[in-house]
Design goal:
Blueprint: H1 3-37, H2 41-47, H3 51-84, H4 86-110, E1 117-119, E2 126-127, E3 130-131, H5 132-152, H6 158-183, E4 187-189, H7 202-217, H8 235-256
Antiparallel strand pairs: 1-4, 2-3
Helix pairs in contact: 1-3, 1-8, 3-4, 3-5, 4-5, 4-7, 5-6, 5-8, 6-7, 6-8
Length: 257
């Protein structure tokens, strides 16, 4: 692709980026406040007497998580397109969304490869048994982990980049799982087991690593560390924001005990 064509694509994306990033930051602040404060519909019923306002806030709570993940994915997608072109963004998105959708659907139906799991309606619209926002979540994490790994290990080859991406994705999942399962109820492990273990199955983390590393191996770029005119929306920063919200929620939960 010529430099003039790349600059034209970037200029076309700039108005979209300028709106998506501030909106994501505002929504993230709301997410952090509600998660950290442990606010749910039960709390609304106790503290908000106006029925109309209570219904509006309840709707906000229901769409809070899926919209947050949608905004994160949109920012990551636009950042890839600005750095690598729309063709690359589409290819990476289809690869990751497809791979994790198949893994999630198979796990919900037969218990493999992630483990026995049930996906609730807390992440919004479903494609079959899998919430669309679940696939967007993995898209954000894997692309963010790849971007961060490429910046930390600039001289590494594709295999080293893939392994590092898998490792960072698993670290993020370790940070996220207690919230996704126990607090936000995005999914439920061992749905048919009345005395479920306290931790997700080890196959979950192994699959995270293999899928993240395997997909990254095929996510080739003309540059190891993509340069973008919009560095504030770089995928690695999005990964850090997600982990920061997870950590903040963990800390707030400990303080409330």
């Amino acid at each position: 692709m010529s430099k003039s064509s790349r600059r034209g694509a970037t200029r076309w994306l700039e108005p979209i980026v300028s709106g998506l990033w501030p909106l994501f930051l505002v929504w993230t602040a709301v997410v952090a406040a509600i998660w950290g404060g442990g606010i749910g519909e039960a709390e609304l019923a106790g503290y908000v007497s106006n029925a109309g306002l209570r219904d509006a806030l309840a709707l906000l709570l229901r769409i809070l998580d899926p919209v947050w993940l949608l905004l994160a994915a949109a920012n990551v997608y636009v950042a890839i397109a600005a750095a690598e072109h729309l063709t690359v963004a589409r290819r990476w998105a289809l690869l990751l969304l497809g791979a994790f959708f198949v893994a999630a659907a198979a796990s919900a139906m037969v218990g493999l490869p992630l483990g026995p799991v049930h996906y609730t309606g807390r992440l919004g619209m479903k494609l079959g048994v899998v919430p669309l926002a679940f696939c967007l979540l993995f898209f954000v994490i894997v692309v963010g982990a790849r971007d961060l790994a490429a910046r930390l290990w600039r001289r590494g080859g594709q295999i080293q980049l893939s392994i590092a991406t898998g490792f960072l994705a698993v670290v993020t999942d370790l940070n996220m799982e207690p919230l996704a399962w126990k607090i936000r109820a995005w999914w439920l492990w061992y749905p048919a087991n009345l005395e479920a273990p306290k931790l997700p199955p080890i196959s979950n983390y192994l699959t995270w690593f293999l899928l993240a590393a395997g997909c990254t191996f095929f996510m080739r770029s003309s540059r190891v560390a993509p340069h973008s005119r919009t560095p504030n929306t770089a995928p690695w920063l999005m990964l850090c924001v997600l982990n920061g919200v997870f950590l903040l929620t963990h800390a707030a939960g400990l303080l409330r005990r």
